[in-house]
Amino acid sequence: MLWSSKNSGKKTQAIESLISLGTTLEGNIVFTGGLRIDGTVRGSIVSVADEPSMLVISEHACIEGEIHAAHIVVNGTVIGPVHSAGLIELQPKAKITGDVFYITLEMHQGATVDGQLVHEAGEKPALKLASNQL
C-alpha cells in the first residue's frame, strides 16, 4: 500500500503497517516507515528517531496517548500531545485535544485543536493554508 497525493508536491511514504477498524490496542507502539491507524490505540505512538516516518490517523481512528513522528496526517480523534518532526496535516475531521508541536503545519477547514499550537523550529512558523479544490 502506498500513501500518495497526486500533484500535491508531497513526498510519498510506503504504509507498511495497518491497525484496522474494529481493532483496539492498549500499550505503546514504536514503528518505522509508515503506519496507518483506523482503529483505537490507548498508548503512545512513536516513530524510531532519525528515520523517515509517516503516521496516518484516519477519520475512524481514536488515539489516547502521545504521538511522535516525522510526517503526521490526522483525520480522526487524538487525545494527547502530538509532536511532528516535519509536516503535520490536520484534515477536515481532525479533532485534537492536546498541544500540537510542529515545524510545518497544514490545517484544513473543519479541523479542531483544543490546545496550543507550538512551533518547534526557532524562527518564523511555516504555516500552509489548505484550499478547497473543487
Q: Taking strands numbered 1, 2, ... along the chain, how are they ordered across the largest sheet? A: 3-6-9-12-15-18-21
- Counting DSSP E segments of at least 2 residues, the number of strands comes to 21
Strand content: over 45%
Count of structural domains: 1
Structural class: mainly beta
Q: Looking at the structure, what is the overall shape? A: globular
Give an account of the 3D structure.
The chain is mainly β and about 130 residues long. It has one domain. It has no helices and 21 strands. The strands form four sheets. The chain has a seven-stranded parallel sheet, with no helix packed on it. The chain has a six-stranded parallel sheet with strand order 4-7-10-13-16-19, with no helix packed on it. It has a six-stranded parallel sheet with strand order 5-8-11-14-17-20, with no helix packed on it. The relative contact order is 0.13.
Brief rundown of the structure:
It contains no helices and 21 strands.
Topology:
Layout (H helix, E strand, L loop, with lengths): L1 E2 L9 E2 L2 E3 L4 E3 L2 E3 L1 E5 L2 E3 L2 E3 L5 E5 L4 E3 L2 E3 L1 E4 L2 E3 L2 E3 L2 E4 L4 E3 L2 E3 L1 E4 L4 E3 L2 E3 L6 E4 L5
Parallel strand pairs: 3-6, 4-7, 5-8, 6-9, 7-10, 8-11, 9-12, 10-13, 11-14, 12-15, 13-16, 14-17, 15-18, 16-19, 17-20, 18-21
Antiparallel strand pairs: 1-2
